[in-house]
């Protein structure tokens, strides 16, 4: 079993004892999403820490998008609940890259791939994605690459 999944299970017990409702429901949801991912496909398998991070990143993104949707609909209470869940999930994710760090990695990937012009975005993304995995959202990475290649 992955160390991250073990930590989630231990934190589940702690939050249950502490009666921390937000943390409890968020960790339960995360473990359920991990369980679904483990049995998806042809055969059940244990997820590695990297795969667990991908699942948690996807769940955090869902919370952020749901929060925006609730906020736009004038439902502040639900929006805040989603943001609270997202904050709990982000505790288990690697630290996100700052704009400067992302810019540096984009520049290095462009130099490494020898890309020039917006049509070379795929080459840059192929080099860059393994370096930023889990530390920056895909849309944000694509936007930074597009901006650098257009300039």
TrEMBL record:
GO terms for molecular function: carbon-nitrogen ligase activity, with glutamine as amido-N-donor. SUPFAM superfamilies: GatB/YqeY motif (SSF89095). It comes from the Bacteria. It holds the Pfam family YqeY. This is GatB/YqeY domain-containing protein. It comes from Planotetraspora phitsanulokensis.
């Amino acid at each position: 079993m992955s160390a991250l999944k073990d930590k989630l299970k231990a934190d589940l017990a702690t939050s249950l004892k502490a009666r921390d409702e937000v943390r409890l429901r968020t960790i339960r949801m995360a473990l359920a999403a991990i369980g679904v991912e483990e049995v998806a496909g042809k055969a059940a398998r244990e997820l590695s820490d990297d795969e667990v991070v991908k699942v948690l990143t996807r769940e955090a993104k869902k919370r952020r998008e749901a929060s925006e949707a609730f906020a736009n609909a004038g439902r502040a209470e639900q929006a805040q609940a989603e943001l609270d869940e997202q904050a709990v999930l982000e505790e288990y994710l690697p630290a996100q890259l700052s704009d400067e760090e992302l810019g540096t990695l984009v520049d290095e990937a462009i130099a490494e791939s020898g890309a020039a012009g917006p049509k070379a975005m795929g080459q840059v993304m192929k080099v860059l994605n393994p370096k930023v995995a889990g530390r920056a959202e895909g849309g944000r990475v694509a936007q930074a690459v597009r901006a650098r290649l257009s300039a």
